């Protein structure tokens, strides 16, 4: 046999280390499991419905959320005002519809910003390991042991209440659990056999991060992000209650509910409608979050 | 054990020291002092006030003075209320919050744990769905809405309980239910999922095969092993509930610690904020310590002296 029978192969054509499979099948699997969970599906459906109502609803009401008319103040629900009117004669249905926009956007913005900060911080801590990881986690421990309320109220006192500052205040707090979860995931994943196998097969750090670590920690990240939304809406309602919510005449559900709570004895409907809106939305997000947890975490599959 | 406890107390002191320092600096980084919010004071008056409370001292000196006083358990005077010290405010508010909080923690544990066990035993059956749905409802209602609804239905409509104030046991019921709802729901969910996990393990099957009855099986074999996540949650939760919830205390007009805390932040009452924060953090650290001790009592496999494994 002579040498000219053989041709050298370009090393870059060798794809034998390429262990990845089409990742869609995992998500199809998740979707299949999620579909079986009736409560989670109902939650998803209601969330979509609430989102559509929040976006389109205000266009279909004849009233503005800020126009006051004291002649019709505190009216009970009627054909003209389905949810009644508040103490300044504003149509409560319109205010609840606008409130949906504000409360939902608070939840979504809080969730996205926590995800970004938490994944970056936790990811860096988990990948760096050692002393850097220790330092970064102790920092969270310290920040965590100072009461949450103290930060938020101080922040709001310094920056004046308002929508943007609620975003900042909530993001400042909620990134910490997210960072912890991401770091924990990265730490345990990078010790696993398949990561070692990938490394042995010659995959570089970036390839491991993008192909293995991120997709595999996506489940817990997604669950936490989903459950951050009701948490944020919850906290915003609480901030509204102590007078640090969005500024008038804008009103989130939390503001509406706390306004309603003050005239509870005479006009209970002013509390009931925003309260029902908050509870239904929170329930839906919680059911969806639980469903996602069961669908994404194969260990919980029972 | 002894070695662990002393190590733990050392780290407790360290954490508290860092919290105090961080809160102290945070407090002084905020623009506007406790006396700027009120009507304009004459500059001399302001100077006198600042001198009286040592606010004109350099920051490091204020800091060392404060630390020195804390070692003597003296949290200083309130800036807002001339005749009250922080120690007095905590001594007045905490017992009220403690009573209310203990009842709430008791309620949460007494109903949450059995509910979780029942749900796990009836997995994917009616009772399970009932417990899961109502506990999801429990984590979906903000406490001020729940409190308002309770007042409306149980105090206004059926005059079963008083709507507000603090005059004895019947006044504690509605507020403690409002406080307990969320932790109760969380405990039920934690208990259910950890019980499900334990019930699927081999030693449970072995016990069943030996013919251990259902009641004994749950009590002797499953309960202790599945309590750990619940205990982990209950520790810090109890500290939070015991130090008072501002919302519930203010809705029911209860003179507890939580209400003092939020008003003090509004008033920039530095010393009160610092005092209550330190008190609160100390309580949290202490409860976490209790949690670790409880681990050992629950699970002999966990050893406190060897911390290398996790």
Give a verbal description of the structure:
The complex is a heterodimer of chains A (302) and B (310). Chain A has helices at residues 24-36, 38-56, 92-128, 130-145, 148-159, 163-189, 193-200, 205-241, 253-262, 269-296. Chain A has 302 residues and is an all-alpha fold. Chain A has one domain: MetI-like fold. With 310 residues, chain B is mostly helical. Chain B has 2 domains: 14-71, no CATH class; 94-266, MetI-like fold, CATH 1.10.3720.10. In chain B, 73% of the residues lie in helices and 0% in strands. In chain B, helix 1 (2-29) packs antiparallel against helix 13, helix 7 packs across helix 9 (214-226) and helix 10 runs antiparallel to helix 13. The model of chain B has no long low-confidence stretch (mean pLDDT 82). Chains A and B meet through helix 4, helix 5, helix 8, helix 9 and helix 10 of A and helix 1, helix 5, helix 6, helix 11 and helix 12 of B.
Concise overview:
Chain A is 69% helix and 0% strand. Chain A has 302 residues and is an all-alpha fold.
Can you count the helices of chain A?
10
Q: Report the biggest beta sheet of chain B as strand number plus sense, adding barrel if it closes.
A: none
Strand and helix order of chain A:
HHHHHHHHHH
In CATH terms, what is the fold-level topology of chain A?
A: MetI-like fold
The strand count of chain A comes to: 0
- Mean pLDDT across the residues of chain B is 82
CATH class of the largest domain in chain B: Mainly Alpha
Looking at CATH, the homologous superfamily of chain A is MetI-like
Q: Which architecture of chain A per CATH?
A: Orthogonal Bundle
Q: Count of helices of chain B?
A: 13
Bulk shape of chain A: elongated
| Separation of the first and last Cα atoms of chain A | 61 Å
